[in-house]
Amino acid sequence: MITKIIHQIWNERKQNAWLFLELIFASIFLWLAIDPLFTLVCRGNLPKGYTPEKVYRVKCDAYNTKKDFLNQLADAFDNIPEIECSFIAQCELQPNPGGYSSSMLAIPDDRPDSLIDWKVARFYNIRTNEKSRFFETIRAIDVKTGKVLQQADYAGSDGAYLSRRQAMSLFGTTDVVGKKIMNVDHKSFTILGVFEDLQLLNYDEYTPIVLFCNNVDNFTFGEEIYFRLKDSVDEDEFKKKFESEIMPKYNHGINHIMGLQSYMECIDKHDKQYNITNKYRLYAGLAGFALFCAFMGVFSAFWIRTNNRRRDIGIMRSVGATKRRVCMQLVAEAVILVTVAFVVSMPLIAHYITVEGFAEPLAKVPTWIHNDTPDQSYLHNRVVPHFAIVTAIAYICISAIAIVGALLPAIRITRSLPADALRE
Q1: Contact at 8 Å (CB) between 334 and 8?
Q2: Which of 117, 150, 231, 370 gets the highest tally of CB atoms within 10 A of its CB?
């Protein structure tokens, strides 16, 4: 049967030539439209490593907020039954690119700096005491126990917590609690715990992170307070209570609470500020437009091609071919045409990727906003898997369109009498 189908396609080569060219262009266009969306979807579906739901930021007057005022709020939150735990943060932490810096870390030894194996890390400063519970509030996971990491009450200024990736980068293992690391100033820090990697920003990838401990008393400009509501608390009801009972109680003098902002709102605000949300929508729209164009072009082309074969279908039916056999032959012709066109388009796409590289949707976003060094441990950052997956998606989409375009009119024609088909 395959030989007959190939002969049939060859015999109609003049009629199939334009269709073949259209399939090549549609394959390239669809592949290039799916590529950036694939990267964004892969990044957007990485496990966050923490639970942002039910976490809120207390919006205070940043210019006048004082240490005593934040400590007073932290004390008050201890006595509010709806609040599970809270922490004092420097800046907006994750959603704020100004909340972290880059640093070089190493394992302490006596070798000269030029011989020490320094590793790059993002670092944050977290405030620590018996009331500021960073890990419990965001529910970061302890690598060792698989449960929420319990923060030390008094970590001191020489304590640090590492992400899984940071621990593996420095030591090659996550069993590093109690070991030492040092920064570029050769100050040593004792590792107090290792937490699962955090996706700090939407569509970012995991990066090596170290959290240096600072006592709450080491107050600098820009501190804020975050808290987590208990799972059973109704968020809308608590917001009303906060605005009517808590805010008036603590708004006096130069200290001023302006309201609450959920952690999810912080992240959304950041994404909108740097057009990350718009980029996602843009590439999703482009992929949808490409699918629509492919559907209109390829679907209509195969619909017309099948309708023009009414006489052939009538002859096949008159000599005993079943409806199923006729439909299967037309579908097989469509699949063969799509497959050959797709194979021809692959060298062109591969050449483009070699010259331009894969689409990087966040390429123009400042490098301090997201990790600009692709991590090769993810499929979408490795050349062969990335190319294969996008190719498979594009091939499945265009094949499905071609099959539907050939099958629907074929079913309608085979339902009529062979004499009617021959007459037309």
Answers
A1: no
A2: 370
Q: Which two tokens stand for residue 254?
A: 């130069």
* 289 shares a domain with 222: no
> Which residue in the block uniquely carries the two structure tokens 């005993």?
320
Q: Both 376 and 247 in a single domain?
A: no
How many structural domains does the chain have? 2
- Mean pLDDT for the stretch of residues 278-287: 77
> Do residues 31 and 71 both lie within one domain?
no
Cβ neighbours of residue 189 closer than 8 Å, sequence gap 6 or more: 158, 159, 160, 180, 181, 182, 183, 212
Which residues sit opposite 193 in a β-bridge? 161
Which residue would you say has higher pLDDT here, 345 or 58? 345
Q: How confident is the model at residue 92 (pLDDT cuts 50, 70, 90)?
A: very low
At 325-369, the pLDDT tens digits run: 878 888 888 888 889 899 999 999 988 888 877 777 666 565 555
104 with 176, same domain: the answer is yes
**Do 54 and 374 meet the contact criterion of CB atoms below 8 Å apart?**
no
- Judgement on whether residues 80 and 168 belong to the same structural domain of the protein: yes
Q: How far is CA 411 from CA 19, 296, 337, 398, in A?
A: 21, 20, 20, 20
pLDDT tens digit sequence for 158-201 = 888 999 988 988 888 999 999 998 887 888 888 999 999 888 77
- Residue 77's nearest CA partner among 94, 53, 55 is 55
> Nearest 5°: phi and psi at 107?
-85, 130
Mean pLDDT calculated for residue range 92-99? 48
Q: Domain range holding 8?
A: 2-47+275-423
> Residue 228 — φ and ψ, nearest 5°?
-115, 130
How many whole angstroms separate alpha carbon 226 and alpha carbon 313? 71
